[in-house]
Amino acid sequence: MKNEESRCRRISFHGNSVEHEVESYRSNYGGIRSCFVCHIEELKKPMVEMLLSRFKLLVALDFENSRLDHFPESVGMLLNLRNTKIKVIPKFIGKLQNLETLDLQDTEVRELPKEINKLIKLRHLLVYASMMYYLCNM
């Protein structure tokens, strides 16, 4: 079992029991690269920080149908952020130098901070057509 745990690269948490599940994962799962957190009614900042501290090699974090209303600054090393449901992009987004994908399609974001121009590795910015006005005026 230990060998299988160390080879695990993706992990998924569903429903509101995610906090207890994440606490149960110890260093055996240190190789996790992608984490999917689905269908959480309200995802608190300490929970996201716990995810980031448990999985040191994490590069992709997907919050499908989960309510995360703000990012902690500890997301700085991620390459992909998806399905966050946030309302405002924080100014420290410019510090996410490794971010390659930012998916804002199912969020309530209506404006992007000018700091988004600092994302030198950003390859994919996914937005709805209604947001194109803001992008054109940057």
TrEMBL record:
Organism whose genome encodes this protein: Clitoria ternatea (Butterfly pea)
Taxonomy, superkingdom: Eukaryota
Name the UniProt record assigns to this protein: Disease resistance R13L4/SHOC-2-like LRR domain-containing protein
Keywords attached to this entry: Repeat
UniProt entry tagged with the keyword Repeat: yes
SUPFAM superfamilies from the UniProt entry: L domain-like
Keyword Repeat recorded: yes
Chain ranges of the Disease resistance R13L4/SHOC-2-like LRR domain: 47-131
InterPro entries: LRR_dom_sf, LRR_R13L4/SHOC2-like
Pfam families cross-referenced by the UniProt entry: LRR_14
